[in-house]
Amino acid sequence: MPTAIAVTSADLVLPAPDRHTPGAAVLHPPEQLDLAGALAQTSALLERHGHLVAVVPPWLPRATVQRLHTVRAILETDRIALLGVDLPPLGTALLVRQLRQLSVCDFSPGVLASAARLLSHYVYAGALLGSVAKLDRVPVGLKAHARSWSPSAQFAVLAHPTPHLARLGASGGAHGGGTVLPAGPEFATHLTFARGQLASDWVAAELAPAWQVQGVMENPLPADSPGWWGTPKLVEFAAGIPDLSVLYQLVASVRREECRWCGLELIGDRCGFCAAPLQTLIESNERRTAR
Known about the structure:
- The chain is an alpha/beta fold and 291 residues long.
- It contains nine helices and twelve strands.
- It has helices at residues 35-49, 62-75, 89-102, 109-120, 142-147, 202-211, 225-229, 244-252, 278-290; strands at 4-7, 25-26, 52-56, 80-84, 124-129, 155-160, 164-167, 190-195, 215-218, 234-240, 256-258, 265-267.
- The strands form three sheets. The protein has a six-stranded mixed beta sheet with strand order 7-6-5-10-8-9, sandwiched between helices.
- Helix 3 (89-102) runs antiparallel to helix 4.
- The radius of gyration is 20 Å and the shape is globular.
């Protein structure tokens, strides 16, 4: 069985792009599932899949994060990876879908877990907002804050990979002219968007053609999106690589190392399971060689 991919909310599981892509397990928070139930669920996942890769967003309540670490500690296993992913909710869901796609490939659990950091660099995530008065994820100037009080204000915001904010004019363009968003991805992407309490077709009608995306899909808005963006008046969007063969080549092209702490393979600069940094592993090997 492929490595299990897990999320902490069902609304972070986007529809599978094909019949081969598996779903994701949902690890419920403490208020929905007691500790005994969480231990039983996780044990069953490990027994069936061998390893578990769980995406842990930074907006989770502290009790939920503590529950995940408690389960891993009680089970005394090194087969659970808790991946911190600092993307907006819809961007996180898109990354989770990419991990689900790759889970059926011949990558080892360690490579799959550490691939999340690599793939996140290729996710373009943002939102069309009706107000930026409470937005603290992207730098907001005083003028933008002041203009947020206008009932007709709309702001195009890119949170990742490079923060950017621009006010939209009445015609749908940037206020005062210029570019609404920085140049889009220089690779083929599909765009997923989700509507909140903002009535606008700007994302599908203008942003998607400007970014020359190959496909557009609408999805329900994740429950944590209004809190992340500071307003329920939004249309969230995320663009990423949809093609499994491209994702595979991207991950396969990176040099693999062996984690000397847990023994799993890794790519990049950190092990996805034990979080040991690659530099520490290199220094440890150098000390052993010197002896």
